Each structure stands twice: as C-alpha cells, then as structure tokens.
Task: inverse folding
C-alpha cells in the first residue's frame, strides 16, 4: 500500500480498481502486522544518505513521502 505515497491516491485507486481490490482488503487481509518506521531524514538527518542504494530522494522529498505514507 505504500505505493500510494509515491504515485498518489488517484493512480493508486486506478490500480485497485483494475485489480478488483479495495484498500480494506489490502490493509486488513493481506498483512499480519504493519510497522511504520519514520525516515531517518526526519528523525536523524545526519544518517540519511540520498546517494545510497535504497534512497534516492532528497532530505525534504523523503520527509514529504514519509508523511504521505
């Protein structure tokens, strides 16, 4: 479901409709647990590396996406 944070709810809802899924099905039936970790960009910016393997967003972009998630 975190794709919605990157592509926006309009496109995410289009995918849901195309796949015949609902947010409730994905959220409540697909996962046993959900853990949301705050990005290091906000909690510990000195450790955030936008040039790393798993992160390519700037500090501000990472914070913005994290809030959308």
Result:
């Amino acid at each position: 479901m975190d794709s919605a944070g990157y592509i926006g709810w309009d496109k995410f809802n289009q995918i849901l409709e195309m796949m015949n899924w609902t947010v409730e099905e994905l959220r409540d039936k697909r996962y046993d647990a959900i853990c949301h970790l705050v990005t290091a960009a906000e909690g510990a910016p000195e450790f955030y590396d936008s040039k790393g393997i798993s992160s390519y967003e700037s500090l501000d972009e990472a914070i913005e996406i994290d809030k959308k998630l």
User: Anything to note?
Assistant: The longest helix spans residues 9-19.
